[in-house]
Amino acid sequence: MSMHNSEPTRFVNVDGARFAYRRFGNPIGTPIVLLQHFMGNLDNYDPAITDALARGREVILTDNTGVGASTGTAPETVAGMARDAASLIDALGLEQVDLFGFSMGGYVAQQIAVDRPDLLRRLILVGTGPRGGEGMAQLDPEVAPLFGKVYDPQDLMWLPIFFSPSDTSQAAGRVFLERIRARSEDRDVPVSEATVAAHSAAARDWGAAAPGSFDYLNGIRQPTLVVNGSNDIVVATLNSYILQQNLPNAELILFPDSNHGSHFQFTEQFNRYLTDFLER
Amino acid sequence: MSMHNSEPTRFVNVDGARFAYRRFGNPIGTPIVLLQHFMGNLDNYDPAITDALARGREVILTDNTGVGASTGTAPETVAGMARDAASLIDALGLEQVDLFGFSMGGYVAQQIAVDRPDLLRRLILVGTGPRGGEGMAQLDPEVAPLFGKVYDPQDLMWLPIFFSPSDTSQAAGRVFLERIRARSEDRDVPVSEATVAAHSAAARDWGAAAPGSFDYLNGIRQPTLVVNGSNDIVVATLNSYILQQNLPNAELILFPDSNHGSHFQFTEQFNRYLTDFLER
Q1: What is the pLDDT of residue A1?
Q2: Please, is B50 exposed, middle or buried when counting C-beta atoms within 10 Å of its C-beta (0-12, 13-18, 19+)?
Q3: Mutate which of A230, A247, A276 to test chain B, going by most B C-beta atoms within 10 A?
Q4: What is the pLDDT of residue A129?
Q5: What values do phi and psi take at B201, rounded to 5?
Q6: pTM of the complete model
Q7: Which of A123, A237, A252, A258 would best serve as a mutation to test chain B binding (most B beta carbons within 10 A)?
Q8: Which of A163, A175, A248, B42 has the fewest beta carbons under 10 Å from its own?
Q9: DSSP character for A266?
């Protein structure tokens, strides 16, 4: 029985805006808050990961401002997205959380760690990179079109973006798609073009190379788990190495034959590593 | 009850030379053969790791030619060391093994994977690097003297070489030293100066940068686990990343606040990861 697929979408109002979220799991220990990737909404979190997490803690899936069923205008900076995500966490009355940020959600998680360190117990950064990381100012010219193309159904876009070209990885991708399609009722609203444009601007701004752009990482003292695939075509894998090398207390895991969504491919293994990290 | 500390040293003769080894554990599944680091003998394997491994498989600790109680002249090339280690494995009647190489033992393990692929089921490469890796032609000028200094007792040399300068890491180092001192009888023979000189030459030869020096990695098809500390001062951590990026089926784990001997520091965690890797 998947709580991920059966728990209703909930809403909370902050300063006149409405945030959509889902909250479920075992109400013990530190809750974990998940921050979503570019073009993803509440239905793009992976039930194979969130249901596993929910056995040992509360899991909170979030839509940032302007994403899915959350109202408001999406910020054009990671700083704005971090402020809004933190205001949602505050509105839920959570005093300390673990933060799990994937891709752009990882940018937001890092920024929250800088701005609101007391809010954060541990940090999980998957398929992501630091401010001004390697090749992060813009998508590779061969990768960018994958985000703009029309697919039928549209979620097929995640096969080339999250998975490697190998048969094994693509097969794992198709199973992943089945998982995120399984919720049949109360699905979230597609991400609007205006939000896509705002988040594109936020990603470009975050990724712009600048001297000393990694310096802030040394101030993030929380235990951090950094995970990626061997060849991430969206946020180059080298950036996960850079995160580990510059964060004072980070462990790095890189999976073989995988891309941006390695955790959707090596899911059981990822769950074991993640649970180990959260419970040690 | 530590088998590591109680099992006798054994010997096997190959072509007139005598290899020293220890063999213990649960005789099921694929045996694991451990290949030792520069200046280490049978007493430098960590009982916290080998006893844990021994619960699920046979563990074979090895001295290469000219090391400890093994007779013969130590080869001056990794190719020679790989040939000798493989001949020891053959002499023990083992048809397929997992290989665990630490540091120079990792060079030897890679070479065996190239020369004798059928002998190998899985590969574990800790604190090591590829042929011609980054900064591997010679030790850093600040690090080289750590290997030549006189310490009292001499095994204190491993504190700066294997552990980071932090209080936490150094404390873990002192516990590690207690572990490798615990075997009270039938200890191995110190590594001779002649063997140290031969192995230094082998390491310089392996580490010499050359165009295409990573190409062989693409031919190592075995599942491989690559592990290192965040700041390895002996074989720069970047080389572990290079291994993962060039091996077709490798997972990388980098631990925080650690050096060349991260597995001696994060031992419980390392054991969980290693068991998971061997049993999946």
Answers
A1: 77
A2: buried
A3: A230
A4: 98
A5: -65, -40
A6: 0.98
A7: A252
A8: A175
A9: S
